[in-house]
Amino acid sequence: MAISPCNRKAALIRLTVVKARILVAVAALASLCACSSDPVVCTAIGYITGISVDATAYAPNATVTQVQACWAGSCHDYKASPANNGVTLAMAYDLPDKPVDVTITLGSLTRTVSAVPVVKFARGRECGGDLRGLDLVVAADGSVSTKG
Fold first, then answer.
1. What is the CATH number of domain 50-146?
2. What are the residue boundaries of the structural domains of the chain, listed by start?
3. Hey, which bits of the chain come out as E strands?
4. 8 Å CB contact between 115 and 134
5. Are 113 and 99 in contact (CB under 8 A)?
6. Is the Cα torsion angle 20, 26, 28, 31 positive or negative in sign?
7. How many other β-carbons are positioned within 10 Å of the β-carbon of residue 147?
8. Does residue 87 contact residue 56 with C-beta atoms inside 8 Å?
9. Would the CA dihedral through 100, 42, 28, 15 be positive or negative?
10. Which contiguous run of DSSP H or E holds residue 9?
11. Which of 17, 33, 44, 96 has its CA 20 to 30 A from that of 102?
């Protein structure tokens, strides 16, 4: 059985249209994969989380000497380390997503504040967040609150 020239031409056109559609689909997928010119690097290298205390309003050169966090019936003492600009950091990688009573000692001042640690995003929300922390501020009158 012979194929007529018209049928052959129609089949060739259909084949060309299918190839063109495949080519367009592949090009569209390739452009989706390459749309970001700045890939996000999700690393936590050099990222410290835990409890930060900014006491510059209370005493510009003050350093918190003790940080204790209590939850679920147990207390945890953390080493307080001075950071830049009068902020003290206490590395605490085990903070829960429940209320924590944090007691700080700053010279003769001892204050306790209750707060829920928040998820920190080391390199932006697109990298996810699995580290919890608290940012505390000591006001000029000695009261302590969460930052933000």
1. 2.60.40
2. 1-35, 50-146
3. 50-54, 66-71, 74-78, 80-82, 87-91, 100-106, 109-115, 118-120, 131-138, 144-146
4. yes
5. no
6. negative
7. 11
8. yes
9. negative
10. helix 5-33
11. 44
User: DSSP secondary structure string, 65-76?
Assistant: -EEEEEETTEEE
Cβ-proximal residues to 81 (8 Å cutoff; 6+ apart), any chain: 88, 89, 90, 91
Q: Which amino acid is at 80?
A: A
Most confident of 46-50, 125-129, 130-134: 130-134
CA distance 89 to 124: 21
In angstroms, rounded to a whole number, what is the distance separating the alpha carbons of residues 8 and 4? 6
Buried b (16+ CB within 10 A) or exposed e, 79-110: ebeeeeebbbbbebeebeeeebebbbebeeee
Q: What is the pLDDT of residues 67-119, one digit of tens each?
A: 999 999 999 999 888 877 778 888 888 899 899 999 999 888 999 999 999 88
Residue 140 has pLDDT above 90, yes or no: yes
Over its C-alpha atoms, the chain yields an Rg (Å, rounded) of 30
